[in-house]
TrEMBL record:
Sorted UniProt keywords: ATP-binding, Cell membrane, Kinase, Membrane, Nucleotide-binding, Serine/threonine-protein kinase, Transferase
Stated name of the protein: Protein kinase domain-containing protein
Domain of life: Eukaryota
Organism this protein belongs to: Ceratopteris richardii
Compositionally biased residues, Basic and acidic residues: 283-300, 327-338
Length: 338
C-alpha cells in the first residue's frame, strides 16, 4: 500500500531486498529516530523537545493523516497512529511510518469498515475497540492521544505511574474540566518554558479529538488548519512569554507579523469556540472573540471536555478555521507572484 502513497509527511518506501527466504523493505533514513524516543525515557543530559518543535511535529503528523483521509484514492484509515510510528528526520521533520495495519476506507454511502480490532492499547478509539467499526474518526482519536503525549510528556499507557494514572486519557479527563489544572498537565521537562495561551489552545484541540462520540470529533483537515496556525503563532515565541508564570494569560499577538494578526485572531476565536460547554459561553465568545479579551477567554475555557458543546458554535468554528486557511493560502499566493 505504501508504494502507492506519496506525501512529505509519509516515510518513503525506497525498495526491497530479496535473498533466499529473507525479505526486507528499504525505507528512507530518518536521522532522529521516533517521536517516542524524544518524549519518553530520555537519556540524562538530553534536552527535551521545546514547545514550538512539539507543535511542528503535531502539525506535520496531522498533515500526513489528512493526505490519507482526503487526498488518497481510495481513502486510507491508518489505524495504528502512535508516538513510535512517527519518525523524525533532520530538524525534527515528522513522517508517519509502518502501514502494516492500514485499511482502505469506506466508499460510497458506507460510513465505516468492519474489521477485527487491532492497534495499540491506549490509542484505540472506544467505539472501534467495542464494535470493530473503523472510521476516519478512529484515526482522529488516536491523533488526540499523540497530541496529549506531546503536551504532557506522558505515555498513552504507563503502569509505572500511580493507580488511576495508568491510562493517559482517563487521567486527563477530569483535568480538562478545570482550567486551573491546565499548567499541571504540561510536560515537567519543559521547566515552565511554554506559552500559557498556547497550552490552552493545544489542549482544546486534543480534547475535541478525544471526544467519546466519534461524530463530535473534528475532521482531520480542520485539525491541520488549527495546528498549522498554532505552529506558526508560536514558532518564534519571545523569551518573556516562554518564561511567563504558568497561570498567566499572555497576549501573543506580538509573536506574529502585522500581516498575520487579523487572520490569527479569526483562528484563535475558532479554537476557543470549539471547546465551549454551554449556549451562554457561546454567546460570550461571539461577543468577545478578540485575542485581547482575556475575561471572555476565561469563560470560554471553563470546560474543554464537555459533551454538551453547542453544535452550531462548532460548525461556526470550523467555518472560520477554513476561512482562515483560505486567507493564508491567498496571501502566500500573492507573495509568490510578486
Amino acid at each position: 500500500m505504501l508504494s502507492l502513497l506519496h506525501h512529505d509527511n509519509l516515510v518513503s518506501l525506497i525498495g526491497y531486498c530479496a535473498e533466499g527466504e529473507q525479505r526486507l523493505l528499504v525505507y528512507e533514513y530518518m536521522s532522529q529516530g521516533s517521536l517516542e524516543d524524544h518524549l519518553h525515557d530520555i537519556p540524562e543530559g538530553t534536552e527535551p523537545l521545546d514547545w514550538s518543535t512539539r507543535l511542528k511535529i503535531a502539525a506535520g503528523a496531522a498533515r500526513g493523516i489528512e493526505y490519507l483521509h482526503d487526498k488518497a484514492k481510495p481513502p486510507v484509515i491508518y489505524r495504528d497512529l502512535k508516538a513510535s510510528n512517527i519518525l523524525l528526520g533532520d530538524d525534527y521533520y515528522p513522517k508517519i511510518s509502518d502501514f502494516g495495519l492500514a485499511k482502505l476506507g469506506p466508499l460510497g454511502d458506507k460510513t465505516h469498515v468492519s474489521t477485527r480490532v487491532m492497534g495499540t492499547y491506549g490509542y484505540c478509539a472506544p467505539e472501534y475497540a467495542m464494535t470493530g467499526q473503523l472510521t476516519m474518526k478512529s484515526d482522529v482519536y488516536s491523533f488526540g492521544v499523540v497530541l496529549l503525549e506531546l503536551i504532557t510528556g506522558r505515555k498513552a499507557f504507563d503502569q509505572t505511574r500511580p493507580s488511576g494514572e495508568h491510562n493517559l486519557v482517563a487521567w486527563a479527563r477530569p483535568l480538562f474540566k478545570d482550567k486551573s489544572k491546565y499548567s499541571q498537565m504540561v510536560d515537567p521537562s519543559l521547566r515552565g518554558r511554554f506559552p500559557p495561551r498556547g497550552v490552552f489552545q493545544a489542549l482544546a484541540v486534543a480534547a475535541m479529538c478525544l471526544h467519546e462520540q466519534a461524530a463530535s470529533r473534528p475532521a482531520i483537515a480542520d485539525i491541520v488548519t488549527a495546528l498549522r496556525f498554532l505552529a506558526l503563532q508560536y514558532s518564534k515565541v519571545p523569551e518573556r512569554i516562554m518564561n511567563a508564570p504558568s497561570n498567566a494569560v499572555v497576549d501573543c499577538e506580538s509573536c506574529m507579523t502585522a500581516k498575520e494578526t487579523d487572520t490569527a485572531a479569526v483562528q484563535e476565536a475558532a479554537v476557543s469556540k470549539g471547546s465551549q460547554s454551554s449556549q451562554d459561553e457561546s454567546e460570550s465568545c461571539k461577543k468577545g472573540s478578540s485575542v485581547k479579551d482575556t475575561e471572555t477567554e476565561n469563560k470560554c475555557s471553563n470546560d474543554l471536555w464537555s459533551t454538551n458543546s453547542d453544535s452550531k458554535s462548532r460548525d461556526q468554528a470550523v467555518a472560520e478555521a477554513r476561512q482562515w486557511g483560505e486567507a493564508l493560502r491567498e496571501k502566500r499566493g500573492r507573495e509568490h507572484s510578486v
